[in-house]
Amino acid sequence: MAKAIMIQGTASNAGKSLLAAGLCRIFHQDGYRVAPFKSQNMALNSFITADGLEMGRAQVVQAEAAGVAPDVRMNPVLLKPTNDTGSQVIVNGVPRGTMGAVAYFKYKKALIPEIMAAFESLSAENDIIVIEGAGSPAEINLRQDDFVNMGMARLAGAPVLLAGDIDRGGVFASLYGTVKLLEPEERARIKGLLINKFRGDVEILRPGLVTLEELTGKPVLGVVPMLDVDVDDEDSLSSKMRGEGQVGLLDIAVIQLPRISNFTDFNPLERLSGVTVRYVRTPGKFGNPDLVILPGTKSTMDDLKWMRQNGLEAKVLQHASRGGAVLGVCGGYQMLGRTLSDPDGVESGGELAGMGLLPVSTVFRGEKTRTRVKGTYFGAQGVFAGLNGVPFDGYEIHMGDTTLLDEGKPLTEITTLDGQTKRDGASCGNIWGSYVHGIFERAESAQGLVNALFATKGLSSTAAAIDYRSYQEEQYDKLAAGLRESLDMERVYRILNGEE
Predict the structure, then answer these.
(1) Same domain, 172 and 215
(2) 75, 128, 193, 442: which could form a disulfide with 34 (CB 3.0–4.6 Å)?
(3) Are 72 and 117 within 8 A, CB to CB?
(4) Catalytic residue status for 24
(5) What is the tally of structural domains in the chain?
């Protein structure tokens, strides 16, 4: 059975996911078979595995860092929020329905056997399991039946490294307070503290580190700087959502929907020279983009209503009426159609007029489509006609069925996991939509899109093709190097081996 080590944090966004990914890479580099694990993840950014199952993207990143294929056992429970108090509950990659917070709190204890079956199965196949916690272990109101933080550490027999985010301030208080709020048995599981996201000279911190060790009785195993690595973010807490910075030669505006999902679809575009990807939440920030993207969302109808109420829909329609390019992915594709119907109450219920930019109609059904795909563009028009024949791959994950109306033109031809070939998406002039997430991860697809947009401005593209997978590998190595420099890895190994 594998040895386990767990990363917990004093709060959400303390950097647990990145630290876990870095440890996965270090252990992989050192020759171990390693897998990540997070018993329960709450995120709208999800991924479809090779066998058609759904899991959180944070564990996908960690699996890639570990040099293994993403496996749904690495994230047996995924909660995808549908509103402020309810979430779709996905267990072992398959939806089990939508529950309110109170109902789920009562239900979750029944999931422990399935969580442990996934963990033990992974443990039997690997040397090391790197476990990530969620939020903070000091949420004492959630201690009962916990299987995410200290409850998971106990079930797995894992030592814990507790990380605090110094960039947000109050790191000494948050680390000290977290340790002191734990029960004695839980406190004993913490074998070291980590200061994360530091900017400046570590020597300035030394007096504080000494005092923190004295007060908590726990060693500080390292001060991790604000690392300059380009690794996919787990959720919309990412700093990129601030929409700040200078706009490049090519301006791409992504509408920052309230329930935005899978915004990592557009990360490959950011890595092309001269391209800026901005996330826009208000009409005043819309500007004059070269391309508008409507991303995926967990609640298509409600987010379309939000756009309608705050004026962003009008901005997109004005942009399209001037011949501007618009692209919709998944929920964004559904919004671009003429009607959205929800007869079974999968989302909000009822019927809603779409934006009318594509000749399609969507009906929401209870069964979720989950599949990986490969395909080519063949029906792109207008600005994007040059994409035809370009290959891509990705995955579909959606609740709606979208029908192309009589005059509509499909955008792509795709082959699904079960070998079926079908036509997907729609194209109408400079407007197109598709259900495929990850459609720009292949260099040809990302480069083809931006080259077409550069051509409309009379510019020769400066966007060189990027092998996205090789680029990711370089970033994981860079992350591991940064952690090796800042962590006492010799002591981390001793903790992993039960020597401390």
Answers:
(1) yes
(2) 128
(3) no
(4) no
(5) 2
* Domain CATH number, residue 360: 3.40.50.880
3-state DSSP assignment of residue 163: strand
- β-strand pairing of 250-255 with 190-198: unpaired
Mean pLDDT of 402-407: 87
DSSP state of 5: E
158/278 same-domain check: no
DSSP one-letter code for 227: -
In one-letter notation, the amino acid at residue 496 is L
Same structural domain, 286 and 221: no
Cα 87 to the center of its chain, rounded Å: 16
Q: Which two tokens stand for residue 307?
A: 């756009």
Q: Is 437 designated active site?
A: yes
- Determine the pLDDT at residue 481: 97
Cα–Cα distance for residue pair 257/351, rounded to 1 Å:
20
User: What's 30's domain CATH number?
Assistant: 3.40.50.300
Q: Do the bridges between strand 54-56 and strand 34-37 make them parallel or antiparallel, or are there none, so unpaired?
A: unpaired
Residue of 220, 168, 242, 162 lying closest to 198 (CA atoms) = 168
Q: Is residue 82 part of a domain?
A: no
Token representation of residue 38: 């997070």
Report which residue type is found at 123: S
Domain that holds residue 60: 3-75+102-231+473-495
| Rounded CA separation 216/208 (Å) | 12
Q: How many CA atoms lie within 13 A of 475 on its CB side?
A: 19
Whether residue 484 sits in one domain with residue 335: no
User: Out of 24, 28, 319, 330, which one is annotated catalytic?
Assistant: 330
Q: Are residues 418 and 321 in the same domain?
A: yes
pLDDT in tens, 236-257: 445 555 555 678 889 999 999 9
Do 217 and 194 reside in the same domain of the chain? Answer: yes
pLDDT digits (tens, 9 = 90+) for 10-33: 998 899 999 999 999 999 999 999
Digit-coded pLDDT (tens) for 306-321: 999 999 999 999 999 9
The residue from 28, 319, 398, 437 that is catalytic is 437
Specify if 395 maps to a domain: yes
Give me the chain's average pLDDT, please: 91
Are residues 268 and 288 both part of a single domain? yes
Question: 262: alpha, beta or left, given left = phi > 0 and alpha = psi -120 to 50?
Answer: left
Cα 154 from chain centroid (whole Å): 27
- Tally Cβ neighbours within 10 Å of residue 90: 25
Mean pLDDT of 226-234: 82
Report pLDDT digits (tens) over 110-119: 999 999 999 9
How far is CA 389 from each of CA 10, 329, 376, 379, 405, rounded to the nearest angstrom? 49, 19, 6, 9, 24
One domain, residues 278 and 324? yes
